[in-house]
Design goal:
- This is Protein NRT1/ PTR FAMILY 6.1.
- By secondary structure, this protein is mainly alpha-helical.
- The chain has 21 helices and 6 strands.
- The chain has a two-stranded antiparallel ribbon. A two-stranded antiparallel sheet has the order 3-4. A two-stranded antiparallel ribbon has the order 5-6.
- β1 and β2 (45-46) form a beta hairpin.
- The protein is globular.
Length: 580
């Protein structure tokens, strides 16, 4: 069946079966296209995808808003969030071991779960931002939750009532596990405030990069250049936050204690929140486009209900799209039809019965169907970064155990056990990052100096991969699903954390034999364990993952390429259909 048998949206207006204005009006009741669209939470009306202020009103003079000045306030918020995230990711392992007297294995898994929840729950934040709240209000609400969680963690590290007895608990006792363990209610409190913090990250991570990119005018000739620089500076702010977490915060912990270290994270987050709100008059906002999950569900249901309809049916009118230049989705332009995933096209098949009895669960617009197609197309790329996040998670947690056991002196310099410096086209950058990550896990010499080189390699890998991935997802995601697109990256990170926990559990259960006194690869004493085997396993898995990425990247077509292909096909169809 050739693609010409599916009529383009432009030709639908000339179809005799839909020429009746009464029928078209009746059908369009479910796909209202209007320049008067209500902002979330009743904050007024605005038109199309036009940038608006915080009250939902069109911005009269765009030169007074957005741009790099507005982006600076957003950088500060991301820097503080990353500082807290990485400060907790490593310091919490040592806090649970030294203070709460949990084993390294239990501490690592608990922190892995925290990292996983904080990233995987970003899908919820992205959904709320795209559907109802908008990116600004989502960041504002969840960054406050984040601050509350950090405050609770600071109290846990400050007040003795939340900690077990520290008497007669020296280093030998800690290694032997003979220190008094934390009470169940003490651990419950710690886990509660820790996961509150993780939940707070759910609304920040998927929205901050998208909200920052929203500050640049996509109609400007320099838009692409500004966007490239923005994502580079955005990840620079992430790196600065991480460096501060692994240097200054570690110094505060060593000199002034855990309460001061976690308190510094809370203060930094509080200051960044204040700066974020100060920048409110400068921000440009985008309309939330309504529930993306509802639109996805409507496409799937409509496609299933019309699964037996043929593209050559006599009842077929064409593929449905609202007339005019705007789509029926708030905050989104129209998306050109593509030929892949033809089964989903059936959701947009306009039959004669749809004109008589229209329903959004039986008929969807072409743009709505293409949104779902785009989300499906994007999945393989961030999925290939899950392996990178497994490696990152293992480095963040297990490296603490390595550094704790081995000699951390370099000459007269003593390194803290929590030191972790981070440090083409979008898909090419992702590929370079994945390739470098393979080198990082092959580096298996267990001395503090070599760990620094290992960290540098994984830092380079992360910079290439994550910067390219964030920019790729922002540009390729549908207009009304930018936050959902950005959440893909965070979801991959969360799945990587959970996968690391599962992998550790499997390794401990398979490689060890307590009855024979045989330690597992991840034994608390790394001199009897085999961490090098773990890293070789990660290297093999990374090579397989890299091959999968190369295949996915080769098959992927950028939206701009699809548009050019569609333009050519439309021209070809016009020439083909021209009577001689």
């Amino acid at each position: 069946m050739g693609s010409r048998e599916i009529k383009s949206p432009e030709s639908l207006q000339e179809t005799p079966a839909t020429s009746s204005s009464h029928q078209r009006k009746k059908l369009s009741v479910y796909f209202i296209e209007s320049d008067n669209r209500r902002m979330a939470l009743g904050r007024g009306y605005t038109g199309g995808t036009t940038p608006v202020n915080v009250h939902g009103k069109p911005i009269a003079d765009l030169s007074k808003t957005g741009g790099w000045i507005a982006a600076l306030f957003i950088f500060g918020n991301e820097m503080a969030e990353r500082m807290a995230y990485f400060g907790l990711s490593v310091n919490m392992v040592t806090f649970m071991f030294y203070v709460m007297h949990k084993s390294f294995a239990d501490s690592s898994n608990a922190v892995n779960n925290f990292l996983g929840i904080s990233q995987a729950s970003s899908v919820l934040g992205g959904f709320l931002a795209d559907a109802y709240l908008g990116r600004y209000w989502t960041i504002a609400i969840f960054t406050t939750i984040y601050l509350a969680g950090l405050t609770g963690i600071t109290l846990c590290a400050t007040m003795k009532v939340f900690m077990p007895n520290q008497d007669n608990c020296d280093r030998i006792s800690q290694l032997l596990g003979s220190c008094e363990p934390a009470k169940s209610w003490q651990m419950l409190y710690l886990y509660t405030v820790l996961y509150i913090t993780g939940f707070g990250a759910a609304g920040i991570r998927p929205c901050v990069s998208s909200f920052g990119a929203d500050q640049f005018d996509e109609r400007s000739k320099d838009y692409k250049t500004h966007l490239d620089r923005f994502f580079n500076f955005f990840y620079l702010s992430v790196t600065v936050g991480a460096i501060v977490a692994f240097t200054l915060v570690v110094y505060i912990q060593m000199e002034h204690g855990w309460g001061s270290a976690f308190g510094a994270l809370a203060i930094a987050m509080g200051i960044s929140n204040m700066l974020f709100f100060i920048g409110t008059p400068l921000y440009r906002h985008r309309l939330p486009g309504g529930s993306p999950l509802t639109r996805v569900a409507q496409v799937l249901v409509a496609a299933f209900r019309k699964r037996h309809a043929a593209f050559s049916s006599s009842e077929l009118i064409g593929l449905y799209e609202v007339p005019g230049k705007h789509s029926a989705i708030k905050g989104s332009g129209k998306i050109d039809h593509t030929d892949d995933f033809r089964c989903l096209d059936k959701a947009a098949l306009e039959l004669k019965e749809d004109v008589i009895n229209p329903s959004p669960w039986k008929l969807c617009t072409v743009t709505q169907v293409e949104e779902v197609k785009t989300l499906v197309r994007l999945v393989p790329i961030p999925a290939c970064t899950i392996m990178l996040n497994v490696i990152l998670t293992e480095f963040l947690t297990l490296s603490v155990q390595q550094a704790y056991t081995m000699n951390t002196h370099m000459g007269k310099l003593k390194l803290p056990v929590t030191c972790h410096p981070r440090g083409a086209s979008q898909l090419q950058r992702v590929g370079i990052g994945l390739a470098v990550s393979i080198l990082s896990v092959i580096w298996a010499d267990l001395s503090a100096y070599w760990l620094l080189i290992q960290y540098c390699l994984i830092g380079i890998a992360e910079v290439f991969c994550i910067v390219g991935l964030l920019e790729f997802l922002y540009e390729e995601a549908p207009d009304a699903m930018k936050s959902i697109g950005s959440a893909y990256a965070a979801l991959a990170g969360g799945l990587g954390c959970f996968a690391a926990s599962i992998l550790n559990s499997i390794i401990k259960s398979v490689t060890g034999n307590p009855k024979k006194g045989q330690p597992n690869w991840l034994a608390q004493n790394i001199n009897t364990g085999r961490f090098d085997y773990l890293y070789w396993l990660l290297a093999v898995l990374s090579v397989i993952n890299f091959c999968a990425f190369l295949y996915s990247a080769y098959r992927y077509k950028y939206r701009s390429e699809q548009k050019h292909g569609n333009d050519y096909e439309v021209m070809e169809n016009k020439l083909y259909d021209t009577p001689i």
